[in-house]
Amino acid sequence: MFATIVSFLRLTRAAFTLTRHDAILPAEYQTLYPAPIRWFASVMRLFARKDNADNPGERLARALERLGPSYVKFGQVLATRGDVVGERFARGLGRLQDRMPAFEDKVARSIVEVELGSPIDDLFSEFSAPVAAASIAQVHQATTIDGRKVAVKVLRPDIEKRILRDIRALRLGASLAERFAPASRRMEPRKFVDTVARSLTFETDLRLEAASASELREAAASSDRYFIPEVDWSRSSKRVLTTEWVEGIPLTKMDAIDALGTDRKALATRLTRVFLSTALDHGVFHADMHAGNLFTNVTADVWAVDFGIMGRIGRAERRFLAMILHGFITRDYRAAAQAHFAAGYVPAGHSVDDFASALRAVGEPIFGKSADEVPMSRVLLQLFEITELFDMKLRPELVMLQKTMVQCEGVARSLDPQTDMWAAAEPVVAQWMKRELGPEGQIRDLGEDLKNLHEAARRLPGAIEDWADVGAKLKAGEFKFGGGPSLRPWAIRLAWLSAAAAAGAAATWSIITLG
């Protein structure tokens, strides 16, 4: 009870902080609000600070910085969607990506020494002041004793406690939303918060981030000019992560990219393809692809850093995703609709043809058009209306993928406003479909089916013994049923028939495997 009260007070504090920064209902959009909302917004602005920034996005960024790392993550997603929130608003939010206030250098050095168990001079010949600071950690440039230039990431002091408090408040907010706003239940806000909580918890153990970086480095090796820095395991721990230093220009600095002569159109295309290739081919992807975590050079290579949030997607989900994307790319909306139903994304009671028609209404107006010709806010609104019409629920296992797709598209748009996401995705999806749904994929599926059958056969002897025991007890009258004695013969027959079927299956499998 006490924890709930504290979380409610934190939510109240969040609302007050947003109000103080005029970030809930910004004055710039006053004329767009309905009459009752305009009145409410005017009252709220009586409590706003007088020295607020002119940019509503920057005001929201300042409020989120004060509220904590969980809120900052939300703002980072919005910062990539200038097409939805407006370019000016997105620029204001951009400060959240890699320009958070740093904590003291001496504190960072102390954390490194405690975590790695050695004086810092024994670990590095040089250790700089912070070069970048984010909501959960900050980065220092260093040189190892053997002369290698590395990046040293250090967690903020007490960040785990702050995140735990944020998560409690967010969970309470999700529960209140489900209770008092029934329309929100379809989006399953509590499951969404659970997903966010899990990812944030992972971010506070840099050993897990090191493992994710290593895994993604292996997956990226098969992608076209996509690079992940190598982990220095000997200088990494729970609160410290050391990797090779990345020499490049962050995608937040468009002027520097232009001055270098990098082909921004090619870079936008490559960014889309490397994300999809690792997700589809290997089931793993960088799940925090905001511009501050991405670097490039004159040859338009893509380097990624910060692996605290790693997305994973199973083979079955990858297949459904590829089929859905392929259906949109080829304008085969019925195939895309069938993939939605096969995956269970749309309840079976709805019509496949009706859903295919709804997807056509979304896909046709944007097909073949560049990003600057498509008002994404309108597309998102239409998609939301369709999901509501067909009772589609939020899929927690796909939240991270959906969020990253939004980020990736937003960064690609900032590089090339005319980028065609469908054209960029087509070769990756087509290659995956050819491999996975062709002879190679069918052979792999057969192998997995045989493996599953073998596992089932191994469990059959125990199942037969259990059913035989149940049958014996039924025959002896040790089990009673509420339906009366007349049910007993049917139950006995069912038990023995099940046991016989299991024995037959086991015998058949033995003949196949041994013969």
Quickly count the domains. Answer: 5
Shape: globular
Question: How far apart are the termini?
Answer: 65 Å
Helix content: 55-70%
Strand proportion:
5-15%
Order of strands in the sheet with the most strands?
A: 1-2-3-5
Q: Over all CA atoms, what is the radius of gyration?
A: 28 Å
Q: How many helices does DSSP assign?
A: 21
Poorly predicted runs:
505-515
User: Using DSSP, what is the number of strands?
Assistant: 10
Q: What is the mean predicted local confidence, pLDDT?
A: 79
Structural class of the secondary structure composition?
Answer: alpha+beta
Main beta sheet: strand number and arrangement?
4 strands, antiparallel
Outline the secondary-structure elements:
Blueprint: H1 2-20, H2 35-44, H3 56-67, H4 69-79, H5 82-85, H6 87-93, H7 105-116, H8 120-123, E1 124-133, E2 137-144, E3 149-155, H9 159-180, H10 189-203, H11 206-220, E4 226-227, E5 240-244, E6 249-250, H12 254-260, H13 264-282, E7 284-286, E8 294-296, E9 302-304, E10 310-312, H14 315-329, H15 333-343, H16 352-366, H17 376-389, H18 396-415, H19 421-437, H20 439-475, H21 488-514
Parallel strand pairs: 4-9
Antiparallel strand pairs: 1-2, 2-3, 3-5, 6-8, 7-10, 8-9
